[in-house]
Each structure stands twice: as C-alpha cells, then as structure tokens.
OBAP family protein
Amino acid sequence: MKSLPLTIPALVLLVGCGANNSPPQAPIPGESTSAKMRTLETGAQVIQSRPPVEAISAYLDGFHFYSGDKNGQMEAHHYVTVLNEDVMQAVIYDGNTKDARLMGVEYIISERLFNTLPPEEKKLWHSHQYEVKSGSLVAPGLPAVADKALMSKIVNTYGKTWHTWHTDRDKTLPLGIPALMMGFTGEGQLDPALLADRDRRLGIDTQEIKRQRADIVARPVASGANAWERGELIQLKRVQGSGEHGHGDTTHFGTSEQSQQAPSR
C-alpha cells in the first residue's frame, strides 16, 4: 500500500485529528520527570530525526482479545505505517494521549501474502473483514470518503498481533511475557459497554459507520485464519518458570520452537 498516503491525502491530517480523548486509565510507578530529563528530551526532538516514527500515516482504533480468552477484551489504538502495497505495521497503545502506554505491535498483510504462509503460521493471524464491515474498526478524524477508501484497503487483510503490556490486567508495569491477540469475527462477541464507551469518547456512531461501509466488498475469510474459532487457542509458554498469560485450555507455542496441541473443540 505504498501509494495509499498519496491516493488518500486526508491521511496526513491524522497527526492532529481524533486524539487526546482517551488517556491511560492507571498511574505508573516512578518519580516525576526531572527538569534535566525534559531539557534532554526537548533537545533530542529538535536535533534528532525519527524517520520510522515520522512514517506513521494513519490512526486506527479497534478492539482485541486474548487468544484463548474471548472475555479478555480491550480497546487498541493503532498507529500505522504503510510499507508497501501488501504490508503495513502498527504500534499499539492503550490510549491516544502523549502518555499512553505502548501495548504491542500488529503486522498487517494482504490476502495474497497470507495465502502463501504455511498452515502453522496462519494460525497466528486474524481476519479484518468483520472489524471493518461492523464499524468496530475506525479511523478517528478521517472524513467519510477517505475512511471508506482506507477501509476498502484493510477489509481483506490479515493481522498478527502481540501485546507486550497487558494494561487491562497489569496496570502499573509491563509484566509477564507477550500474548497473542485476536480480532472479533461476528456479532455478540465484543462487549457492548466497551464499544459504547469508545463511541462516546471519540464522538462517533458505530452503527452509522457500519451503514456507510455496507458496499465495501469483503471476500470470504481465507482458510487458516482465526484459529481460535476452531478451538486452537495459542499462547506463549516459558520452557521453565512462570509468567505466561495463559487463558484456559490453550495451545502453547514454547520458546523451544516445539508446540503442544490441545484437543480441538
């Protein structure tokens, strides 16, 4: 999608749109930033360049849940860089203010690339068709015409998401090991209270967005995605010790690159 920012000029406005209304919900330990550190920070901002950060061109807001725990749901603020026509990458935060916590990353690929993946790899990826068509994935601040163009690009893509700070459970510091996240695929899965709170803060109407996207073409979900729907629930597990975010009867991929398969349900 290298041409995306050129074909949708409004994306460049996202730097100043749809932000500063979703702060993190819990304090973190530590002393207040010193005057010396603030001075160093200001100097670095003026002197140093940040090409990877400056390449971020879109802001998306949606929802994730833990693979193996559909009740472990949270809002996820994505800041997206378009690498080419088939690959995007996003840094994910728990809010859209300057002090938001970095929760993790998501890699987004086209259906064409997803279909080239081996079967075990496909199990780590989730589809975006429902998220786009339902209106639960939004681009805050983007005009409707640009929103539809962007979502028409995203609707048939696939994402692999790892959260490294589980801010719904570990409020103060990033504890434990990364967790694989999934996306919702049907009605009745997403907590309506989460959705209503998001819509209130962002000043949007998910149902109206859904109606506006009715004519976006979503192809059938490619075989192999959304492994949780088939009972293949995947999370990391330490070879020794504890700290993993296990959720019920899960399939664990160990750091030894060996996996234990839980019976499908």
Summary: Strands lie at 58-66, 69-82, 87-93, 102-109, 126-127, 158-163, 179-182, 234-237, 251-254, 259-260. The CA atoms of residues 42 and 92 lie 24 Å apart.
